[in-house]
Amino acid sequence: MNVYRFINSKDIREHLETIKYPFGSLEAAWIIYQCRFASLEEKHAAWRELIRTMPDCAIEERPNTEAHDSLHRFLAAYMKRETKLLHVFCENDGGIYRWMECQEDGERFEHPGIYSDYAKCYDQISREISDNEDGEIAGYLVTKTYPDAEEPCMQSKLSAEGELLSVRESQAGPDPFEGLFFVFPTPFQKGDIVWEPNTQGYCKGPFVLTGVSGEAEAPGHRRGGDNSDMTAWGYFQDESGNIYHETMWNYMNLEYYRGPLTGKRRVLRALGNCLKGEIDEGLFARAYHAILTEEYAGSLVPRDITKEGMTLAALCEPEPVRLWLDDLRKAPTGYKWCTSVNAAIRCIELCEKAGCTIELIDCDHDLGDYAKDGGDGIRLIDWLAERGTFYRIELHTMNPVGRENMQREIDRYWPARREKEG
After folding, report:
1. How confident is residue 421, by pLDDT bands cut at 50, 70 and 90?
2. pTM for this structure?
3. What is the 3-state secondary structure (H, E, C) of the chain?
């Protein structure tokens, strides 16, 4: 069977095809699982072909994966479970559906509609698909929850064309496939400039590769490692041009970076050539400082013609500030966007230090993954109450329980301020 077509990276796919890499049955099953663009139907068809055409094998017990004496039987049970989950997800049993679009740059935008029928929800997504002429939308995420539940119970991912890619329970533990670890050959060498397309966070954009997890790390990882240990590492660059060394996951998604290396990113080209031995460290150091100095000089704007400079010189008053706390929805025009409670706190403190008036704080409750950085929206309400800064608050959360809890806190503490002012 053609396992290569399920590899996300086109460069790794071409390399493994060139060397005619012989996939084992478990390796092939995992490659199919992790494919980002194959539909659920295509994955199931590929697993069924694997069962018919490739030898059976056992799956050893690992920290996040149970032992199975037959890969074939495991795959059959896995597909049966996914099919059942899909049936429950699409069944009209009183559940509530919401959906959001996932942009190519990693941003997510939740649409306001709430649907009691999956078909109606999908029909609305289909209309959005027909309008996606610019190709900015990478896919869609649909969630299903039930009345009075604080969190979605199930979610499905759709491609930009509307094909079903996956369905899973929101609170499910690690997938058995995530507990596996493999070493695959890659074409990349130290000093190559690579990237993971469309990734976000601390390791986004091109970086200079210094290493990929392989045979040297394999003995321990083969026993206790998992997908998260299939890493690559190298030198990344932040927006200021500074270089930092970091580890990214998963190396099987890496591709050669073919975009322009202009501006501050010229540093990456110089660093890559240094690591390959094409230039020495002294010349790289000269290039690094020359490039950043040149870019910094070109970005300078005289303080006396900027609003910031005029404000610092007390020649004009600072403009009132409006804060928008939300992990998904972009801030409306005129708002400062904060995705976490701690980010909002830092922004408030900076505004207070600069003498800016905070006119409004518009809060969401559920902050998703960003809740790890300070908690959900109600924590900001508590923080403001504890320090006695009773700024005007508005709520735009779609979570009825979260809204009720936040409004209760506001009603409890903010009247004291109104009485004091009155």
Report:
1. very low
2. 0.70
3. CCCHHHCCCHHHHHHHHHCCCCCCHHHHHHHHHHCCCCCHHHHHHHHHHHHHHCCCCCECCECCECCECCHHHHHHHHHHHHHHHHHHHHCCCCCEEEEEEEECCCCEEECCCCECCHHHHHHHHHHHHHCCCCCCEEEEEEEEECCCCCCCCEEEEEECCCCEEEEEECCCCCCHHHHCCCCCCCCCCCCCEEECCCCCCCCCCCEEEEEECCCCCHHHHHHHCCHHHCEEEEEEECCCCCEEEEEEECHHHCEECCCCCCHHHHHHHHHHHHHCCCCCHHHHHHHHHHHHHHHHHHHCCCHHHCHHHHHHCCCCCCCCEEEEECCCCCCCCCCEEECCHHHHHHHHHHHHHHCCCEEEEEECCCCHHHHHCCCCCHHHHHHHHHHCCCCCEEECCCCHHHHHHHHHHHHHHHHHHHHHHC
When pLDDT is cut at 50, 70 and 90, the band that residue 420 belongs to is very low
Q: Is the pLDDT of residue 422 over 50?
A: no
pLDDT tens digits, residue range 59-92?
A: 999 888 899 999 999 999 999 999 999 999 999 9
